[in-house]
């Protein structure tokens, strides 16, 4: 229960803490998580009675909890476990602590596993069933009731996936407590192999039944498989027009309807969602590089011209308030307009039932702000960005999704402020992309358990100005800990870029060496690296740094229009005794790199109602060389954050601190961000978890 400041009830004792001793096989948190007795919560991990009410000690509840612990130990295979006592110690006038004493005893091991009734099945089915059970219940392991039940469910699934829809099984475990051995047995009655019967569809409304049947890919007369039924459910949900889908066999109705026992009818029940929707919103970004205000307006039709086609249009107008930014918050001088228009068309059942054809187009303009510093003479460069893609998307297996597309990106430069460099020209990049995604999270907005894995492979060179190979896999994992109220989240990623016709100036530029190419070639090189290279730092990367602050830095020639390569190189030359931070702003801008690695670890916990907290550690590096993982440059930052839950995801505020001595060795390409409020920190604000 939550309140402002709790008091201690009269003539009662509050429970300060609970500890367990004598336990080796199970840890304290696992045991305490299974009982009703709870220690008084501490706000921010420190203060009892502030925000949260005290937990009142009840000795009758504690007595029942001791029995619960013994029962839980038996479920984990410890049949000799005894809870000897629950000691209560008075800590103050109204506080007590509890110590639970456990005597575990030896574990009961699995001594034998038998599966009966498989002899009449095809050999490959019987062998698969025995193998699955043996892998879940290895001889010599502690006998656990949960694994015993999981093995039974898996055995049943093997049978139903191979046509035995009427399969029944019994299970038993004999425990020899004198020898601490368990004999496990399963008795299988597979029944006859069956085929799919009539498929009935309900609840589709105006949606064409033929489209639903095509997507299901279930044909009467084909062998029965529960895996096929689950795949059919996922395929219908992927259409995006149903809020719920149920594909179930009518096993109990076969005899009463006179249906042959080797045929099972299927019921498909769907609940249609709204076809058309409008979404409106807005956002604010405030960090060390920009202050950004924008609106979001979109319209979506999930049955565009019938046939379950999906059409989406989204418009995001906004402006950058220039040069206002953290920490100085300079007075605004001008608004830099920005906008993005996005269109997407999706055709389900393209080529085959569960493959969608997708066409996307996007047009936008935005300023490119590369640093938290500025010189009054520097131009403010912007880009007109046009993108188009066409491809195929498909669910591959279980929760794995794949997409293959051809993409074209056209970037045309202009200036908001100042003169445009004569060598700054339009750049075109064309590439096919293969994108794979495994999403096994329990929630997409605020996951607390599961994994999320992606990999993007791009090969540029089918037309356009760039020829390269670019690959970037990423893995995220989530685990619920401490009574499932706290989430431990981790993320790791790396990126490799193999450029063939650009990028030669990056290393020389980063280390202030002479640039051998012409000025126009140098400008083109920098432009292509902006589009294809890797950058790190920012709210979704390393939160101790602003956007693009990690990685090679050097001169960007089009920030000094009209100056020759020699003149510009001379103005950016590092003299003896001079620090790189003393150079002009346009000599120390992000360039992009060829090798990226990132890693993050975050602990998320509740605070008050919808308000949650987080502590995190982020690491990252970007190298100016190919296949160059520089582990001696961790750029380690640690910090804390606040999350406020909303229907569209958590509103997030993070503060990252760059830990001294754990950044990178001093070098000419290493960028040192400015301090905020006198501290080596970065602040980020946005919507959605960082990962």
Oligomer class? single chain
* CATH homologous group name of the largest domain: membrane protein fhac: a member of the omp85/tpsb transporter family
Q: Counting H and I runs of at least 4 residues, what is the number of helices?
A: 9
Task: Output mean pLDDT.
Answer: 86
- What does the main sheet amount to? 16 strands, antiparallel
Question: What CATH architecture label of the largest domain applies?
Answer: Beta Barrel
Shape descriptor? globular
CATH T-level topology of the largest domain = Porin
- Per DSSP, what share of the residues sits in E-state strands of 2 or more residues? 35-45%
Strand order of the largest sheet: 14-15-16-17-18-19-20-21-22-23-24-27-28-29-30-31
CATH class of the largest domain: Mainly Beta
Number of domains: 4
Q: Tell me how many strands there are.
A: 31
Low-confidence stretches: none
Helix content: 10-25%
Structural class: mainly beta
Report Rg.
Answer: 31 Å
Tell me the span between the first and last alpha carbons: 30 Å
Question: Can you walk me through this structure?
Answer:
The chain is mostly beta strands and 691 residues long. The protein folds into four domains: 2-103, Ubiquitin-like (UB roll) (Roll), CATH 3.10.20; 109-189, Roll (Ubiquitin-like (UB roll)), CATH 3.10.20.310; 195-272, membrane protein fhac (Ubiquitin-like (UB roll), Roll), CATH 3.10.20.310; 276-687, membrane protein fhac: a member of the omp85/tpsb transporter family (Porin). The chain is built from nine helices and 31 strands. The strands form seven sheets. A 16-stranded antiparallel sheet has the order 14-15-16-17-18-19-20-21-22-23-24-27-28-29-30-31. A three-stranded mixed sheet has the order 2-7-6. A hairpin with a 4-residue loop joins strand 6 and strand 7. The model has no long low-confidence stretch (mean pLDDT 86).
């Amino acid at each position: 229960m939550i309140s402002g400041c709790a008091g201690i009830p009269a003539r009662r004792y509050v429970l300060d803490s609970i500890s367990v001793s004598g336990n080796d096989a199970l840890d304290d948190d696992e045991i305490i998580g299974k009982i009703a007795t709870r220690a008084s919560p501490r706000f921010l991990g420190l203060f009892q009675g502030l925000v949260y009410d005290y937990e009142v000690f009840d000795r009758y509840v504690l007595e029942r909890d001791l029995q619960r612990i013994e029962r839980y130990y038996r479920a984990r295979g410890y049949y000799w476990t005894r809870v000897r006592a629950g000691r209560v110690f008075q800590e103050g006038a109204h506080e007590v602590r509890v110590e639970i004493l456990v005597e575990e005893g030896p574990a009961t091991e699995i001594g034998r596993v038998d599966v009966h009734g498989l002899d009449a099945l095809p050999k490959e089915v019987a062998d698969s069933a025995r193998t699955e059970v043996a892998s879940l219940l290895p001889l010599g392991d502690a006998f656990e009731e949960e694994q015993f039940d999981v093995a039974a469910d898996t055995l049943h699934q093997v049978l139903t996936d191979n046509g035995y829809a009427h399969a029944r099984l019994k299970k038993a475990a004999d425990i020899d407590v004198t020898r601490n051995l368990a004999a496990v047995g399963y008795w299988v009655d597979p029944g006859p192999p069956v085929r799919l019967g009539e498929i009935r569809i309900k609840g589709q409304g105006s949606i064409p039944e033929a489209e639903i049947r095509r997507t299901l890919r279930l044909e009467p007369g084909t062998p029965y498989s529960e895996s096929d039924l689950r795949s059919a459910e996922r395929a219908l949900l992927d259409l995006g027009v149903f809020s719920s889908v149920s594909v179930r066999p009518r096993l109990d109705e076969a005899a009463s309807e006179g249906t042959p026992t080797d045929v099972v009818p299927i019921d498909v029940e769907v609940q249609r969602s709204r076809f058309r929707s409008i979404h409106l919103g807005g956002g604010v970004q405030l960090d060390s590089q920009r202050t950004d205000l924008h609106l979001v307006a979109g319209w979506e039709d999930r049955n565009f011209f019938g046939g379950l086609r999906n059409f989406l249009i989204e418009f995001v107008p906004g402006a950058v308030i220039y040069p206002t930014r953290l920490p100085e918050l300079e007075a605004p001088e001008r608004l830099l307009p920005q906008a993005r228009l996005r269109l997407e068309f999706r055709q389900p059942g393209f080529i085959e039932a569960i493959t969608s054809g997708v066409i996307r187009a996007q047009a936008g303009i935005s300023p490119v702000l590369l640093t938290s510093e500025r010189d009054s003479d520097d131009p403010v460069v912007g880009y007109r960005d046009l993108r188009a893609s066409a491809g195929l998307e498909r669910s591959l297996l279980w929760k794995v999704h794949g997409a293959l597309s051809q993409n074209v990106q056209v970037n045309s430069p202009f200036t908001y402020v100042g003169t445009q460099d004569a060598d700054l020209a339009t750049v075109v990049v064309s590439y096919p992309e293969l994108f794979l995604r495994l999403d096994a999270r329990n929630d997409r907005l605020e996951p607390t358990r599961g994994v999320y894995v992606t990999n993007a492979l791009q090969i540029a060179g089918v037309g356009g100005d760039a020829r390269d190979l670019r690959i970037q896999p990423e893995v995220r994992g989530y685990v619920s800990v401490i009574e499932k109220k706290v989430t431990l989240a981790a993320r790791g990623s790396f990126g490799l870029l193999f450029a063939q016709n650009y990028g030669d100036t990056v290393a020389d530029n980063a280390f202030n060496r002479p640039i051998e190419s012409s000025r126009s070639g140098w400008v083109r090189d920098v432009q292509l690296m902006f589009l294809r290279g890797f950058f790190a730092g920012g709210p979704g990367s390393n939160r101790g740094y602003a956007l693009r602050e990690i990685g090679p830095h050097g001169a960007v020639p089009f920030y000094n229009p009209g100056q020759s390569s020699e003149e510009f190189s001379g103005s950016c030359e590092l003299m003896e005794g001079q620090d790189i931070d003393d150079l002009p702003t346009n000599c120390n801008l992000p360039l992009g790199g060829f090798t990226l690695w990132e890693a993050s670890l975050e602990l998320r916990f509740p605070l008050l109602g919808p308000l949650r907290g987080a502590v995190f550690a982020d690491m990252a590096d970007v190298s100016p060389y190919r296949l160059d993982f520089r582990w001696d440059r961790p750029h380690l930052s640690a910090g804390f954050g606040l999350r406020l839950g909303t229907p569209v995801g958590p509103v997030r505020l993070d503060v990252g601190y760059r830990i001294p001595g754990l950044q990178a060795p001093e070098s000419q390409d290493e960028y040192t961000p400015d301090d905020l409020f006198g501290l080596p920190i970065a602040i980020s604000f946005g919507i959605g978890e960082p990962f």
